[in-house]
Amino acid sequence: MSEQVTVFEAVGGMPYFRSLVERFYQGVSQDPLLRPMYPADLNGAVERLALFLGQYWGGPDTYSLQRGHPRLRMRHMPFRVDRAARDAWLGHMVAALEADPPDEPVRSAMIEYFLRSAEFLRNVDESDDPAGEPVVN
What is the per-residue burial (b if ≥16 Cβ within 10 Å, else e) of 97-123? Predict the structure, then answer.
């Protein structure tokens, strides 16, 4: 009988997620659209996102124990997340992933999750503009 391996285990656990998120925030820190949405000190954001992603992909529930339910839409409502912000966030996240990509099918699953998440967090109605699909560079 084979045992199912989680994505968390397949990528090597929290060290992978911390590195991924550190690379992501390196991009965000230089992005004129996204940088104003984050606190001056990104260390807390790095830790929270790493814990969230680790938990989502099968790791320990540290994020929920420390912060409760993720409530992602609520936490992002104070910020204007339009298509441009969505695409910028997605571009930095995919670039961070591709800098040290996990093996398939984990890589594709993670990209698909980031695509869905980026769109889910969009909170500006741009329905009159037909060019609405996420752009991954």
Answer: beeeebeeebeeebbeebbebbeebbe
Model pTM? 0.85
Domain total in the chain: 1
Q: Is residue 57 part of a domain?
A: yes
Three-state DSSP class for 51?
helix
8 Å CB contact between 9 and 67: no
Reference 114, options 26, 68, 67, 53; nearest CA is: 53
Q: What is the CATH number of the domain that holds 59?
A: 1.10.490.10
* Residue 51 within a domain: yes
The answer to the question of residue 2 being in a domain is no
pLDDT of residue 69: 75
Residue 134 · residue 115 · CB < 8 Å: yes
Confidence class for position 2, pLDDT limits 50, 70, 90: low
Rounded to an integer, what distance in angstroms lies between the CA atom of residue 117 and that of residue 4?
A: 25
**49-64 residue pLDDT tens:** 999 999 999 999 998 8
